Amino acid sequence: MIDDAGREPGPAAAPERRARQALAARYLESIGWTVLARRVRVGRDEIDLVALEPGRPPAVVVVEVRTRASARFGTPEESVDCRKVGRLYRAAAALRALGTLPAGDPLPALPWRVDLVAVDDAPAIAPGAGGPSYRHLRGLEIR
Questions:
Q1: Biggest CA-to-CA distance, the chain
Q2: For position 126, what pLDDT does the model report?
Q3: Measuring CA to CA, which residue among 66, 79, 72, 64 is closest to residue 5?
Q4: CATH number given to 13-137
Q5: Do 3 and 79 meet the contact criterion of CB atoms below 8 Å apart?
Q6: What share of the chain is helix, strand, coil (3-state, %, to 5)?
Q7: Average pLDDT along the chain, 143 residues, taken 10 residues at a time
Q8: What's the pTM value of the predicted model, to 2 decimals?
Q9: Which residues share a beta bridge with 137?
Q10: Rounded to whole angstroms, how far apart are CA atoms 18 and 69?
């Protein structure tokens, strides 16, 4: 299988994925969210981030992080299809049924939803200018 940048996925791609997930986590924290867990394995599914949105009402949010190093293969959010959203909801339901995070901390008894944070490493400002850009899509739905 080939990843978004045309590479074979493997151990070498893992540090890049973790770095981009860390960027997304910092973005969420910068808007007042609390990241409760990262890279949560639930059965055969994995959740990139579990976060607490402090809004009214507050919510526990399962966050999928998608990145692209270039726009050559489309935007990061274009790589999320209805099957992926379904797996995210399945993982969220399983985590909720467990009632705890991997570290053993209890999950808050709050409403849940699934979001997507798209990270563009190279936004179209100018070559070598600026930093990553973020798009936050809230409340993904299965269609």
A1: 47
A2: 62
A3: 72
A4: 3.40.1350.10
A5: no
A6: 30, 30, 40
A7: 37 74 95 96 94 94 86 80 93 95 93 93 63 88 80
A8: 0.83
A9: 116
A10: 14
